[in-house]
Amino acid sequence: MDDINANFCFPLPRQLQNERVKLVPFLASTHAAAFCAGVEDGIFSYLSFGPLATVDDFISILDTRVRPDPGTAVFAVIDKASGELAGTIGVVNTSTLHLKCEIGFIITLPRFQRTHVTSNAAGLLLHFLLDAPAQGGLGLRRVSWEAVTHNTSSVRAAERLGFRREGVRRWNWVLPESKNEANENGGATRDGDPKPNSLGGDCIMLGLCWDEWEGGVRETVDASMKRSV
After folding, report:
1. Which pTM value belongs to this model?
2. What does the alpha-carbon distance between residue 49 and residue 94 come to, in Å, rounded to a whole number?
3. What's one GO MF term for it (predicted)?
4. Cα(55)–Cα(185) distance, integer angstroms
5. SS3 93
6. Spatial separation of the C-alpha atoms in residues 186 and 207, rounded to whole Å
7. I need a labelling partner for 102 at 20 to 30 A (CA). Which of 30, 127, 130, 146 fits?
């Protein structure tokens, strides 16, 4: 089955769009090859997977990490001006019980970085997550954003969208050994550690809640989407 989001715990729309970008559920047969063709190794520095040797490697990641998890869904981001795949964005750790989720799989392909794409994709997704059901959203109460402490660009992106820093989770992530150089500020391990060659990472936790969204952040996000390059 091509739909990697088939087990997601909420119904997903066929698309979310404005005049600049469109989000559609990620389909391996439609989007995986274009994604792999557009990435560069450095884009994976702060991710728990990659670089990708083949398209099949990426599909395997989707099959093991996304398809069986009812709390995870991934969208393909389409740039409407060019019609090209511009990246991915999604949600992880979604809870129907507690009406919350975390933004994840934020990967903007290099040629679309520092353009309108990321702000518009994130804005569309936030509307879907935090708008009330009567407005076409899920009506969640909380959306989180997590970034390794030295991934300052991710933290800044979240703060521009109205997320607030809430604290640091220490030793929150075991970094893949292949990414030690990119994450040289990660903590060293102790003698006898089960993964002695993998650095440890602290993560900055940010959050955006429904009352902040309705109290002015929605308008801030909409303005950001309009003024993006």
Report:
1. 0.91
2. 20
3. protein-N-terminal-alanine acetyltransferase activity
4. 31
5. strand
6. 23
7. 30
CA distance 48 to 145: 15
Tokens 């952040």 map to which residue?
217
Number of other residues whose CB lies within 10 A of the CB of residue 34:
16
187-226 pLDDT, tens digit each: 667 788 888 877 777 899 999 999 999 999 999 999 999 8
- Could you give the angle at the alpha carbon of 66 between the alpha carbons of 29 and 56, nearest 5°? 40
Strand 100-108 to 142-148 pairing: parallel
Question: What whole-number distance in Å separates Cα of residue 193 and Cα of residue 18?
Answer: 49
Distance in angstroms (rounded) separating the CA atoms of residues 65 and 59: 10
Write out the H or E segment, with its range, that includes residue 203: strand 200-209
- For residue range 151-197, what is the model confidence (pLDDT) as tens digits? 898 999 999 999 999 999 998 888 777 666 555 556 667 788 888 87
Beta strands in 45-193 (DSSP E): 73-79, 85-95, 100-108, 142-148, 164-174
Please report, to the nearest 10 degrees, the dihedral formed by the alpha carbons of residues 174, 113, 145, 209 taken in order: 180
The C-alpha atoms of residue 176 and residue 180 are separated, in whole angstroms, by: 7
Question: How many angstroms separate the Cα of 219 from the Cα of each of 93, 101, 179, 226?
Answer: 26, 21, 38, 11
User: Distances in Å between the alpha carbon of 14 and those of 17, 120, 123, 151, 217?
Assistant: 10, 17, 17, 32, 26
Contact 165, 159 (CB under 8 A): yes
Is the separation of the CB atoms in 206 and 158 below 8 Å? yes
